[in-house]
What does this fold into?
Amino acid sequence: MNMRFSLFIVLVFGSILGGCSKNEPLVSFQENDLYGYKDKNGRIKIQAQYQQAYDFNENGVGFSFGKEGWVCIDPENRILLHPFPFENGPDYFSEGLARFVEGNKFGFFDPSCKKVISASYDFAHSIQQGFAIVCNGCSLVKEEEHSRIQGGKYGLIDTTGKAVIPLEYDSISEVDPSSGTVQATQGKLKKEIKLP
It folds into this structure.
C-alpha cells in the first residue's frame, strides 16, 4: 500500500474518532464565595456566579443555584429548565426521571435535562413503580420546613406521560407492588384500581 495513502487513512480515521469522543464534563470551582465551572485543563468556562453548583454529569449538564433558583445549564451557561427544589437541592431522579417546574406547573425530565413529560400538573409526586401520582386544582400548603398538598383532583401517569388513571379522584394511594393496584377515593366511594 502507498505510504501517502496509508498516512491519509490514519489522519482521516483519527479525526473522525477524535470528533466522536464526548467532551469532558465541566467541574465546579469556588471564587469569592461564588461558584463557576472549569474544564479538565483548569480553563474557566463559566464565570463564578452561582451560590451552589454541582459538577456537570456525563450527559453534559450541570445543576446550579443562583438568582433564578435551581437551574439545569449546558456548557454555554444556557438554562435548560428549572428542576423542582427538593430537600435543599434539585429534585432526585427516580426511575430515570426527575421533576421540573415551568409556569407553576410540574413535568418530568431525564438526566440530559430533556423534558420527557410536559409541565401540565399543579403537583406531581416522583415516579414510583413506573407511575407518578399527579393532581390539578391542588396547592402546596407550607407547614414549617415542609409542605403538604391540599385539594384538587388526582390521577396516575406512566413514565411516558400517558394518563393511566384520569385526574378525577379525591385521593390516590401509592402503587402496591405486590398486587399492582392503587386505592382511589371519590367522595365517600373507595375503589381498588388494577394497573396495566
In short: Residues 26-80 form one domain. The radius of gyration is 23 Å. The mean pLDDT is 89. Residues 3-20 form the longest helix (18 residues).
